[in-house]
Structure formats: structure tokens, C-alpha cells
Design brief:
The protein is an alpha+beta fold. The chain contains nine helices and 21 strands. Among the domains are: 154 residues, FAD/NAD(P)-binding domain, CATH 3.50.50; 61 residues, no CATH class. Helix 1 runs parallel beside helix 5, helix 1 packs parallel to helix 7 and helix 3 packs across helix 7.
Length: 445
């Protein structure tokens, strides 16, 4: 079993030069995941000069570690969105993600990324009433979901919500394809942004001067808008398995604790779940064991080929933050674990804002939007855990996060230092893996 992402292993990614010296562009994009690359593609198609800088290699972050379900079936989210946002705005969220699914399907005809249409099934544990409530919500929004009592995965039991004609793909092949459409002279790898100021992005060996800057780094780097108070990083775990029996060629998501996700890719079943707040669990190897135990108790597992983990940012009202934070700087984050479609929505909103054609979806994703009072319990609950760790960190020794000084937790499965307050992660030798931290760990704390 390989401890790395199947999507990245052996894919043969193209390489791009690092940025050296000073360049001028209409727009600078920071981050080479799906959000950054799709946004860069759209802006270049609009005739703008774009420069994209990536700290490592394209797709090396969260995009390369996803389960890559391309769907607007985002769990049992729509009843909550109606409560938080109202029917009109919940419908805009649904419509924007349905558009993103179709856009990906259309673009995928231009290169090979193994995009296929698949039905998606959402199921729960024992509380079947939650499915019935969600069905009522999606009917209000005009979504074509149906409640079925015979889903094709036997472990589901009583029933599931089925969304027909969703999608799945190979995320790295998609990024390679779209980078080929972007062309040369736009993408610069191994060019970590060291500072972002009005009109300039400074990297280790160069700078990009641009009137507009888009920060598409999963978690907004150089957080001067206190996103750490409303972005809540969670980790989840993935096994890529071979089974002795056939597995349904569909998408499955259990929206109940413990959260589970299934999809296929050729002869592999991609099985994910066992989520927890980043840094608030130390025995992370146990999460892999739980996944494997569950798989073996429900399927005839032939082998586990790969295992990896990933990180998702949640928001209090379940809607990403996308838009301008002022001074010509734009951000996109908080995709709730549904980044394949939400990233495309973000790219539409961001590119529209840059070229002066405001998207009809911009308002619901606005980074400065007011938060529904119904979402405040989520914000309080998520911040309370981080605040507790922050206070304890004042009185204990140990390695401290360079963001706000929280005591770090050793992640034994990934050999990393993880922050229980705001989700920063560091490699064993102290390099930043996930923001909001910018600076590496000190050699001694």
C-alpha cells in the first residue's frame, strides 16, 4: 500500500518554470489548484494577461487529494440553505453548482480526464426522516432528486436520495488538460507568495505586478480579514481499494456520523470519511483503521492500493466565501468538501468581477455577507473548540503554530504538526503545508 494520493502517483505532470524577476500582468492568480487554474483559464479566454504562481506543483494541494465527485448533490445541505438563506438564495446555490457540473462536462470534451456521468446517492444512518425533509427542500428548489428504497449499495439499507446524471473525473488529468489550454508563459511553479500587497505579489525570487490579484490557495494566505473566525478546517481520510466483487458505478455519500463517501475509478473503489477537526485528533492512524475495518465488514476487500488524507474548509452557513476583500484583491475559500463544482462557481464569480460583469451568483457567495442568526450556533461551536486550545496553549510548552501561537498536535499518520485552533499544518521539518500560517516552524520552541 502506498501512502500517497492515487491521483498524483505516476501521472506525469507537466513542469513549469519558477518565477524569476519582475513581470507585469492584468491579473495575478495565487494558487495552482482547480480554482486558480479554472479562473486563470477564464480570464485568459477573456483576453487578459494572466500570471499564476504556485508554491509547489499544480494540483499538489487539496485538488490532488480529493475524491473528485463532480456533483451538486452536496449531502443534505439544501434544507439548511433554505433555513439560512431563504428559498431564492438556496436555489441560486443549487443552480450555480448545477451549471458548474455541466461546464466541467462540456470542457472535458476538449481533453481526456476520464469524465463520466454517474448517479449520486445520499443516505443516512437510522433517521430516515432527514431524507424526507431534504426531499421536500430540493423539490422547492426544482432539483430532480427522488427518494428510492432500493439503492444499488446494499449497506445503505432503508433508502437514499438519488440525483441522476452527476459526474466524476480524474482531477489531475483535468488540471493537466486545462493547463494545456492556458498555454505557456502563464503558470509558474515552485514560486511561493511571500507577500501580497495592493498591486503586487512578491515571491521568493520575483514579483508579479497586477491591478487585480486573486488568492486561490484553499485557505486565504495573508489573512488580514480574520477568516480564521469563519473558516473551520477538517481532515478526512481516503483508501483506494480493490474488491473481490463488483461495485456499483455510482457516487455514494453518507451524510451522518461517521461520514462516508464512495466512488469508483476503473478497478478501484475510492472510499473516504472519518472526518475530524484538524489538529484535534492525535491518533490519526486510527482513522485509517476505522475505514479499513468498515470496508472489510461490508465488502470482500482484495487489497488496499493507496491511502491519503485531505483537508476541507467549512463555513458557518455552508456557503463558500468568494469575492473581493478590497484593494483589488479577491479570495475564494470554504468549499465544504465539494470543491469540484464550487471551484468552478468561484471562477465564474471571480472572473466576472475582474472583467466588470458581475455574476448573478456573486451575492450569495460574497465574502462580506451578513451571517444568518440560524448559522451562528455553528460559528460558536466551531470557534469554541479552537478557543479552548488557544487558551491552553498559553500555559503549556511544545511546538507552537506560527499563525497565533497555538500548541501543535503531532499527526502520526501523516507525520505532520497540525494546529487545533485554525488548521495550519507543517511538515516534520517545519515547512508550511496548510495556511493560515505563513512562516515555517522555528527549529526550537
Amino acid at each position: 500500500m502506498l501512502h500517497k494520493s492515487f491521483w498524483i502517483d505516476g501521472i506525469g505532470r507537466p513542469s513549469f518554470p519558477s518565477l524569476k524577476g519582475s513581470v507585469v500582468a492584468d491579473v495575478a492568480v495565487v494558487g495552482g489548484g482547480i480554482t486558480g487554474l479554472v479562473t486563470a483559464f477564464m480570464l485568459k479566454e477573456a483576453g487578459l494577461k494572466v500570471v499564476l504562481v504556485e508554491a509547489g506543483s499544480i494540483g499538489g494541494g487539496v485538488t490532488g487529494h480529493t475524491t473528485a465527485k463532480v456533483t451538486y448533490a452536496h449531502g443534505l445541505v439544501y434544507q439548511s440553505l433554505i433555513s439560512y438563506l431563504g428559498v431564492r438564495n438556496a436555489r441560486l446555490y443549487a443552480d450555480s453548482n448545477a451549471m458548474a457540473l455541466d461546464w466541467i462536462a462540456s470542457l472535458s470534451r476538449r481533453f481526456d480526464c476520464d469524465f463520466h456521468r454517474s448517479d449520486s446517492y445520499i443516505y443516512v444512518g437510522d433517521n430516515f426522516g432527514r431524507l424526507e425533509s431534504e426531499l421536500s427542500a430540493v423539490r422547492m428548489l426544482g432539483l430532480p432528486a427522488v427518494l428510492v428504497d432500493d439503492p444499488p449499495l446494499r449497506l445503505i439499507g432503508k433508502g437514499a436520495l438519488r440525483y441522476a446524471n452527476q459526474g466524476r473525473f480524474h482531477p489531475m488529468k483535468f488540471l493537466i488538460g486545462i493547463s494545456s489550454l492556458i498555454g505557456k508563459g502563464v503558470i509558474f511553479e515552485n514560486s511561493r507568495a511571500k507577500a501580497i500587497e495592493e498591486g503586487v505579489v512578491k515571491t521568493e525570487n520575483g514579483e508579479v505586478k497586477a491591478k487585480k490579484i486573486i488568492v486561490a490557495t484553499h485557505y486565504p494566505v495573508f489573512d488580514d480579514n480574520n477568516y480564521f473566525l469563519k473558516l473551520f478546517p477538517w481532515r478526512s481520510y481516503v483508501l483506494a481499494m480493490k474488491l473481490k466483487e463488483p461495485f456499483p458505478d455510482c457516487l455514494f455519500y453518507r451524510d451522518d456520523y461517521p461520514f462516508h463517501s464512495f466512488r469508483t475509478y476503473n478497478d478501484l473503489v475510492i472510499f473516504g470519511g472519518e472526518d475530524h477537526r484538524t489538529g484535534q485528533v492525535s491518533d490519526t492512524s486510527e482513522r485509517y483503521r476505522r475505514l479499513l475495518d468498515f470496508a472489510r465488514s461490508n465488502f470482500s476487500v482484495k487489497s488496499v492500493e493507496y491511502r491519503w488524507s485531505t483537508q476541507d474548509n467549512l463555513t458557518p452557513d455552508f456557503v463558500p466565501f468568494v469575492g473581493s476583500k478590497g484593494k483589488g484583491i479577491f479570495v475564494a475559500s470554504g468549499f465544504q468538501g465539494w470543491g469540484m463544482t464550487n471551484s468552478v462557481v468561484a471562477a465564474f464569480v471571480l472572473s466576472g468581477s475582474v472583467v466588470g460583469k458581475k455574476s448573478k451568483w456573486a451575492g450569495i457567495y460574497d465574502v462580506s455577507r451578513g451571517m444568518s442568526f440560524r448559522a451562528f450556533p455553528n460559528m460558536i461551536r466551531e470557534n469554541a473548540g479552537g478557543l479552548g486550545h488557544f487558551v491552553k496553549s498559553r500555559f503549556v510548552k511544545g511546538r507552537k503554530c506560527t499563525h497565533m501561537g497555538c500548541r501543535l498536535t503531532w499527526n502520526d499518520a501523516e507525520n505532520s504538526w497540525d494546529c487545533p485552533c485554525h488548521g495550519s499544518r507543517f511538515s516534520a521539518d517545519g515547512k508550511v503545508l496548510h495556511s493560515p500560517a505563513i512562516e515555517p516552524l522555528k527549529e526550537k520552541d
